[in-house]
Amino acid sequence: MTEAAPADRTLVGVPDPLVGDLRRAGLLALLVLHYTAVEPSYGNRLIERIAELTGGALTVNSNTMYPLLRSLEAQGLLAGHWDDAERRTRRFYRATSAGRAERARLATELSPRLQRIARALRAIRAEVLDGA
Question: Which element (helix H / strand E) includes 93?
């Protein structure tokens, strides 16, 4: 007889069905462009802010964040500068005007998907948790 897996077990290597599609559609770029439009920020702080915003439901590691930051900068959507140019300790990024326009475009594009997921989660909660 096989024992059932605990409900809170994280499956390594299994894509998250709720946010995987959003990641591919530009959710991380949207969040980075949003936060850097508000104030300049650096990679680790962006990782922390995304984790705080989502309560850990969306986790980003540095192997994802830093290539994304470099790509957005190469596209002219972010402008970066070193905190200490000689020691290159921390690179701060801010959204450019093109980055703010891309943020608006991504927000419009992702809004229906985010709304659909929010409705689905509310329905699951109402059916399973509130009705218990």
Answer: strand 91-95
Dihedral sign, Cα of residue 42, residue 48, residue 50, residue 53: negative
Range of the domain at 105: 20-130
How far from chain centre, in Å, is Cα 118?
Answer: 16
Encode pLDDT of 48-103 as tens digits.
999 999 888 888 999 999 999 999 999 999 999 998 767 768 999 999 999 999 99
Give the 3-state DSSP-derived string for 63-86, with helices as H, strands as E and coil as C. HHHHHHHHHHHHCCCEEEEECCCC
Q: What is the CATH number of the domain that holds 107?
A: 1.10.10.10
C-beta atoms surrounding 110 within 10 Å: 17
